[in-house]
Amino acid sequence: MRTTFSTALLLTLVARSGNAIDLGRRQGEPLSSLASTTASSTAASSPSGITAPGPAQSLSFVTPTEVTTCQDTLIQWEYAGSSGELLTLGISNVNVTQTGIDPAPPLTIQPLAYDLDPGADNWTWSPVNLTMGYYFVIGGAGKIAAQSDIFLITNGSDTSCLVAPTPTPAPSSTMVTSTSSSSTRSHSVTSSPTGAPTSTAKKSNAGAIAGGVVGGILVLLLLGGIIMMLMRRKNRSAR
User: Fold this and answer.
1) What is the DSSP string of 56-74?
2) Helix, strand, or coil here: 41?
3) Could you give the 3-state DSSP secondary structure of residue 7?
4) Phi, psi of 47 (to 5 degrees)
5) How far are the Cα atoms of 19, 127, 128, 154, 157 from residue 161, in angstroms, in the given order?
6) DSSP characters over 173-204
7) Residue 40 β-bridge partners
8) Could you give the domains of the chain?
9) 150-181 tens-digit pLDDT
10) What is the pLDDT of residue 67?
11) DSSP string, 104-159
């Protein structure tokens, strides 16, 4: 399966991860120190052995507003850097206090999309398939990562897109669907419940399911690495 968001990037992010700290236990605490980040791309070596820095990269997210379950919402960001990088997006509520939310949503690290063109500066989350609660958007491209401030998802009149947890059958692993055009290729990541498949379905869909599982696991690991790298950066700035 094609994993153009790069296993190398995943390993880099995980290797940089260290001691996890609180991303902001007070609801609504500004995360401006994490909302944007800059880094230099890989240096190019000259024949003389002197290295020259590549173009600076920066990524910052616009905090989403008026986000409602099972509706579309626009995720926006600002990016500067190489046009050859690809952006991975996710959403999480790790270490976010769910003030006034009852019941509180479960701990979430959910992939949204990968292989996005960071120069597009926006992507539509359709539909918003998380329950009411406080979350933040995370993303990474190349050697940089960033997150939005905390925002609220509210319940709307339509909750048909939400997957209710059931003990049996277990929900399917993360499935990956792809869309492409002549100029860009991106992947949206969605989750859906499934019943016991028939023998025919098992035979015809085995390859697709296996690819979806592998892709979903890699994206989750990538997002986990991004979160831990941001935590480590926050820890350093606090010292």
Assistant:
1) EEEEEEEPP-SEETTS-EE
2) coil
3) helix
4) -55, -30
5) 36, 7, 8, 14, 11
6) PPEEEEEE-SS-EEEEEE-----PPPHHHHHH
7) 56
8) 7-39+57-167+186-191+202-238 (2.60.40.1930)
9) 999 999 999 999 965 444 344 444 433 333 33
10) 98
11) PPPP-EEEEEEEE-GGG-EEEE-S--S-SEEEEEEEEETTEEEEPPPEEEE--S--
